[in-house]
User: Which sequence fits this backbone?
């Protein structure tokens, strides 16, 4: 593994059918507590990368290379060579995944509480069925589901899309995975609940100091949620780096096009080739933020925390309307910028 804090180490991952190569020499790693975005146009290979890591590639696809997960398995083992039984143990325990469409991840004939309990009993992270049931309610409450005890006895079709995705998230986080992979987890949701679910995802991984790989088409979401971004094109990672750097100064022509075509708005209010996105409010140039600021959520939508001590951001909750992304914070009035 490349470092002590490394959770996922992918080296030279290639995937293809017998006749067609689809992923080429994909290499990246993610550390504990780190949130990495994976962006690229449709068909660029984002989902295949995630599925290869999870050992969920469909039949007919083969993977070569080296994939190591430091957590709960000897880091010396290449997951591409591990048998299905061990991969099944690792899934939901060492690593888990949240897909775009919650209904496909849930069993329609089983009460949601039983589905959350099952993943814990399967992985023996709770000693008994009664203990698992108690933990279910706690987990559902943590993803802000109202009346969790009652809701645990509901079937998936009785819940809204946003509620279902929260249940899926509760399942994904039930065994405190070291790695959470999210593949467009909010795309199928109503815009009004997207930000809330996004915030729950971030809080869930933060609370566990887990590593996260976040696949999305939405560059604004990457800027909000991730510190680092990988850009895929034609089955290759063509650019990688800190979000603020890649978005403000994209090197690869494909990244430049992607950002140019996005809704990101730069420091000077220009569309595309953004310094940093605005959601809403003005954005100071990259780098004009206090060192060590770990403000990561939009407080317009959710309670946000900035662990940077004063001078200008008070510890604790920010007033509604302030916007932040990545390591950047800005007040809508443009106040608080520090050179
Ligand atoms: N089972 C498969 N057999 C053959 N080709 C496949 C298979 N699964 C994916 N592909 C191809 O691999 C390429 C990458 O697909 P992938 O699903 O990873 O793209 P993506 O970047 O996740 O796209 P999207 O954003 O639309 O989900 C595409 O050209 C796709 O058609």
Assistant:
């Amino acid at each position: 593994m490349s470092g002590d804090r490394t959770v996922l180490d992918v080296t030279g991952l290639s995937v293809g059918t017998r006749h067609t190569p689809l992923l080429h020499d994909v290499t990246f790693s993610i550390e504990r507590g780190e949130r990495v975005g994976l962006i690229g146009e449709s068909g660029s290979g984002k989902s295949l990368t995630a599925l290869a890591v999870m050992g969920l590639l469909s039949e007919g696809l083969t993977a070569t290379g080296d994939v190591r997960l430091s957590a709960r398995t000897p880091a010396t083992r290449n997951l591409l060579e591990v048998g299905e039984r061990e991969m099944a143990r690792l899934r939901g325990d060492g690593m888990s995944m949240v897909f775009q469409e919650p209904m496909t991840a849930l069993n329609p004939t089983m009460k949601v509480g039983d589905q959350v309990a099952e993943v814990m009993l399967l992985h023996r992270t709770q000693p008994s069925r009664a203990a698992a049931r108690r933990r279910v309610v706690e987990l559902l409450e943590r993803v802000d589901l109202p009346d969790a005890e009652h809701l645990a006895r509901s079937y998936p079709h009785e819940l809204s899309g946003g509620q279902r995705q929260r249940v899926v998230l509760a399942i994904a986080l039930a065994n405190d995975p070291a790695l959470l992979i999210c593949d467009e987890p909010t795309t199928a949701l109503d815009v009004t609940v997207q930000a809330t679910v996004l915030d729950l995802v971030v809080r869930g991984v933060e609370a566990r100091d887990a590593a996260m790989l976040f696949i999305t088409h939405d560059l604004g979401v990457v800027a909000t949620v991730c510190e680092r971004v990988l850009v895929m094109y034609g089955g290759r990672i063509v650019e990688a780096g800190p979000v603020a750097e890649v978005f403000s100064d994209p090197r690869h022509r494909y990244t430049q096009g992607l950002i140019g075509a996005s809704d990101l708005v730069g420091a000077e209010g220009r569309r595309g080739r953004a310094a940093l996105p605005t959601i809403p409010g003005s954005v100071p140039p990259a780098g004009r933020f206090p060192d060590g600021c770990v403000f990561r959520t939009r407080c317009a939508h959710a309670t946000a925390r900035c662990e940077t001590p004063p001078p200008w951001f008070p510890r604790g909750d920010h007033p509604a309307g302030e916007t932040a992304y990545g390591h950047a914070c800005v007040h809508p009035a443009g106040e608080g910028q520090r050179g």
In short: Residues 17, 22, 40, 42-48, 58, 60-61 surround adenosine-5'-triphosphate (CB under 6 Å). Confidence is low (pLDDT under 50) at residues 266-339.
